[in-house]
Amino acid sequence: DAGVIQSPRHEVTEMGQEVTLRCKPISGHDYLFWYRQTMMRGLELLIYFNNNVPIDDSGMPEDRFSAKMPNASFSTLKIQPSEPRDSAVYFCASSLAPENTGELFFGEGSRLTVL
Amino acid sequence: AQKVTQAQTEISVVEKEDVTLDCVYETRDTTYYLFWYKQPPSGELVFLIRRNSFDEQNEISGRYSWNFQKSTSSFNFTITASQVVDSAVYFCALSEEHRDDKIIFGKGTRLHILP
């Protein structure tokens, strides 16, 4: 089975532009997580979904960030407008129901650079 | 308060040496899970192990072993006879019962295995 698929792998954009990151979780996984990784702050949980419903978005930095999961096989993380401090690697991860709590399957990440 | 502390930011050892990565956690829950993940240079995080709070047995998997001690709130990871392929960033993580499936990561320890 294919793993978690993220796109784009790399994105370079200018400050003020809209950025959309995409994620396809592993089929059958009920949970989807968005993480951000930076040197300064490490790996931060931004938001997670259970059965397509956002459960906890307390990690979303501010209103410029939004995430959606319109169906079980697709999620987006949008930044509008983007700022240089948003530069980071954004990871999507998915997992099965709580019986497998914590065994996250990560995508390869989307490296975002905002100039 | 920081939930997961990995005090060692970077470690370098010569190949074939043993190395221990420290992890100290903080929680008020009696039921919780602890994890280790590996992030090789390719960037994708890979699950290594999960431990629940009621299982203090140490675990060994090949050259990897984990020492869980509730008395000191530690969950340390030892690599025996290290190899260059073990070079990676290693993350310790915690999820608490009252925060179902929300996993908090430590800041990671970057391990360099020198040939």
Written overview of the protein:
The complex is a heterodimer of chains A (115) and B (115). With 115 residues, chain A is mainly beta. Chain A contains no helices and eleven strands. Chain A has strands spanning 5-7, 10-13, 19-24, 31-38, 42-50, 53-56, 65-71, 74-79, 88-95, 105-106, 110-114. In chain A, strands 2, 4, 5, 6, 9, 10 and 11 form a seven-stranded mixed β-sheet that branches. Chain B has 115 residues and is an all-beta fold. Helices cover 0% and strands 52% of the residues of chain B. In chain B, strands 2, 5, 6, 10, 11 and 12 form a six-stranded mixed β-sheet that branches. In chain B, a hairpin with a 6-residue loop joins strand 5 and strand 6 (46-52). Chain B is globular and about 45 Å long. The mean pLDDT of chain B is 92. Chain A binds chain B through residues 31, 33, 35, 42-43, 45, 48, 50, 55-56, 89, 91, 93, 95, 98, 101-109, and chain B through 33, 35, 37, 42-47, 50, 91, 93, 95, 99-108.
Strand content of chain A: over 45%
The average pLDDT score of chain A comes to 93
**N-end to C-end Cα span of chain A:** 37 Å
Taken from the alpha-carbon principal axes, the silhouette of chain B is globular
Q: How many helical stretches of chain B?
A: 0
Largest sheet data of chain B: 6 strands, mixed
Spans of chain B with pLDDT under 50 lasting ≥5 residues? none
Q: Give the biggest beta sheet of chain A.
A: 7 strands, mixed
Biggest chain contact: A-B, 24 and 23 residues
Number of beta-strand segments of chain B: 12
What is the overall shape of chain A? globular
Strand-residue proportion of chain B: over 45%
What is the helix tally of chain A? Answer: 0
Order of helices and strands of chain B: EEEEEEEEEEEE
Ends apart, CA distance between termini of chain B: 38 Å
Overall structural class of chain A, as computed from helix and strand content, comes to mainly beta
Radius of gyration of chain A: 13 Å
Oligomer: heterodimer
